[in-house]
């Protein structure tokens, strides 16, 4: 079975069909160099995802990015510049000419939803579905070049960016900040943090929180992105995602990137669970190069 088939053993498959996006604009602010819209879009029957959409002034067939937030109550507000300064990557990308779409993950920001009552096996798979619909929103915009779409995120958003890229080949480049480590290196092999209702309950129910029993790992997912571009910010002092496990993932992915090594980049700043300014600048430059 493919890596996606193996991932869906843990995440579950979508229990629904796509519906028309019905994008609605709820508010609009003109900021320096771009417009920030508060929008929502339909993802499945009876469910709409709130998001911020940032459109650079004069954008026409521009590159675009789905910008995914970390674990923070404010959700989508942080990437657009209303939270931690080092995590304002949607705002900073808009200032650099990208159309940026920042949706809420289930039960963050303004998005309240019982994914299990809706038939989903995990919040993770529901998030992937919603984020693929976010790609649909971007591809439908005249301001966006539909062939130049990236995903970027930190922490929760860092692994959600990888998941989105793995499931959606329309995403041409992925930036993951503090988003992953190989499962055996996560919290010394205790996957409890991945198994609660905000992620994938089957990790506990079916796989006993045991990395050795898991049917997939980030080693598979990152390799599956090839030949598309992948950039990881993996600080040496990240206490969530152990850096040697990130190196394990890169070692596993390198054969898939033979001959295109410049599309697989890891940065290891001397920092904690953070996305330092100089690394962000290199990530943005990486995205521009990958999409042009």
Kindly describe this structure.
The protein is built from nine helices and nine strands. It is of the alpha/beta class. It has a nine-stranded mixed β-sheet with strand order 1-2-3-5-4-6-7-8-9, sandwiched between helices. The chain is globular and about 50 Å long.
Summarize this structure as a short list of keywords or feature phrases.
23% strand; 9 helices; nine-stranded mixed β-sheet; 292 residues; alpha/beta; 9 strands
Question: In brief, what are we looking at here?
Answer:
With 292 residues, this protein is of the alpha/beta class.
Count of helical regions:
9
**Number of E-type strands:** 9
**Strands across the major sheet, in which order?**
1-2-3-5-4-6-7-8-9
Would you list the SSEs in sequence order as H and E?
HEEEEHHEHEHEHHEHEH
- State the end-to-end distance: 33 Å
Uncertain stretches of 5 or more adjacent residues? none
The percent range for helix content is 25-40%
Mean of residue pLDDT values: 98
Q: Globular, elongated, flat, extended or rod-shaped: what is the shape?
A: globular
Question: What is the strand content?
Answer: 15-25%
Largest sheet: 9 strands, mixed
User: Class by helix and strand content?
Assistant: alpha/beta
CA gyration radius, whole angstroms: 18 Å
Write the layout of secondary structure elements.
Elements: H1 3-11, E1 24-31, E2 34-44, E3 47-56, E4 62-68, H2 78-82, H3 89-95, E5 99-103, H4 123-139, E6 144-154, H5 156-167, E7 171-177, H6 202-205, H7 218-225, E8 229-233, H8 243-253, E9 264-267, H9 277-291
Parallel strand pairs: 4-5, 4-6, 6-7, 7-8, 8-9
Antiparallel strand pairs: 1-2, 2-3, 3-5
